[in-house]
């Protein structure tokens, strides 16, 4: 077994990241092919029996059939990637979905009493022809998808830190010691390197000695992906609730709180708010920018490095509220009431939370979400301690994208963190949000945010 050097592994892992794009392309293509198979089968029978591929009876039946087919196929998990790459499972579920959708449409036709305008022969022979085409298409598509995804829909990466992975392992392996990477939760730059390395993975396996597992567990809690640690000693006791990797037991130490569907729903929600808001607020942005620059020279925006999803750093946008020569990029000094660094327009926009509005750009770019834990700067302090020094659970809050607003803000936990309890209150709210996420909760939190735009702790 060979372990990649960091530079070689990085290049190969970049290739592995393309699985995400490949999976999306394959699912879109399969969706189109299924629709074509159903349409061509029915149109061919309509042409032979009715003399026209676009007969009105077909145009009534086909759209309804396609609608019910996609609904039932999704419910039958016919578009799950582990199903799509299996010819037997893929063809069986697709054909079953088609048969069920035909029965549903026929039932609807009789219930609404439009059977006189409905061709039973077209429905029977057309659906049978479509079934043959969909089985054939799915059979060959499964073979192609299996090869395109190298036999697995998941992107895997193995982090090797002093323990040899199982011999059959063919995933991308990174020698962490050679790369100079350590699980140091007191080093945000190191956690950013780890997060940047694994954020595109679906599954991460950590191979390390027993004495380093606790450190890796803490360092990867906020990774936002499924992380397992190789634990061969579990094989000896026959643990019944352990995962496995190529025949060797593993223990799950971190997982993404949102699955792929949840992330897609959340992203659609973000864009549905961010895009219209940016368009509507553009004249207001220009006005605020002019006022800021009129009062003090410099850029209208303040750009600061913050900790985002998977502990990765990103550049967060705000309207500048302080004098340019007194800006605090590390957030190491708390803003106080009547702070001399804050300009007059700065006090107004901070008091009303207007200074945060440019983060809609971060939402559009995908760095942030509308709702989520607020992003923090690396130098932020709770009293005299850095945030992660107050609680080792701090990094767990980064398993999702940071947000413009969040549960902590709605509960009133905002402003300076003058004591450790100030941070712990926010951390508890953030973890509660992660553990009980629903899209309806995001909608509710957005609505409640309008009631806390101004706050006594905002200055």
Helix-strand layout with pairing:
Blueprint: H1 6-50, H2 56-75, H3 81-84, H4 87-111, H5 120-148, E1 156-160, E2 172-175, H6 176-179, H7 188-198, E3 203-207, H8 213-219, E4 226-230, H9 233-237, E5 243-245, E6 248-254, H10 260-295, E7 301-307, E8 313-319, H11 344-351, H12 359-365, E9 369-371, E10 381-382, E11 385-386, H13 387-390, E12 403-405, H14 407-410, H15 420-435, H16 439-449
Parallel strand pairs: 1-2, 1-3, 3-4, 9-12
Antiparallel strand pairs: 4-6, 5-6, 7-8, 10-11
Helix pairs in contact: 1-2, 1-5, 2-4, 4-5, 10-12
* Gap between N and C termini: 58 Å
Proportion of beta-strand residues = 5-15%
Q: How many individual helices?
A: 16
* Helix-and-strand structural type: alpha/beta
Low confidence ranges: 5-17
How would you sum up the major sheet? 6 strands, mixed
Order of helices and strands: HHHHHEEHHEHEHEEHEEHHEEEHEHHH
Number of strands: 12
Count of spatially separate domains:
3
Question: Could you estimate the helical fraction of the residues in percent?
Answer: 40-55%
Strands of the widest sheet, in order across it, are 2-1-3-4-6-5
How would you sum up this structure in a few lines?
The protein contains 16 helices and twelve strands. With 459 residues, the protein is α/β, with parallel strands linked by helices. Helix 4 packs antiparallel against helix 5 and helix 10 runs antiparallel to helix 12.
Task: Give your account of this protein's structure.
- The protein folds into 3 domains: 17-148, no CATH class; 156-254, no CATH class; 260-452, no CATH class.
- 51% of the residues lie in helices and 12% in strands.
- It contains 16 helices and 12 strands.
- The protein has helices at 6-50, 56-75, 81-84, 87-111, 120-148, 176-179, 188-198, 213-219, 233-237, 260-295, 344-351, 359-365, 387-390, 407-410, 420-435, 439-449; strands spanning 156-160, 172-175, 203-207, 226-230, 243-245, 248-254, 301-307, 313-319, 369-371, 381-382, 385-386, 403-405.
- The strands form 4 sheets. The protein has a 6-stranded mixed β-sheet with strand order 2-1-3-4-6-5. A two-stranded antiparallel sheet has the order 7-8. A two-stranded parallel sheet has the order 9-12.
- Strand 10 and strand 11 form a beta hairpin.
- Helix 1 packs antiparallel against helix 2 (56-75), helix 4 runs antiparallel to helix 5 (120-148) and helix 10 (260-295) runs antiparallel to helix 12 (359-365).
- The longest helix is centred in the first third of the chain and has 45 residues, at 6-50.
- The protein is globular.
- The protein starts with 5 loop residues before the first helix and ends in a 10-residue tail after the last helix.
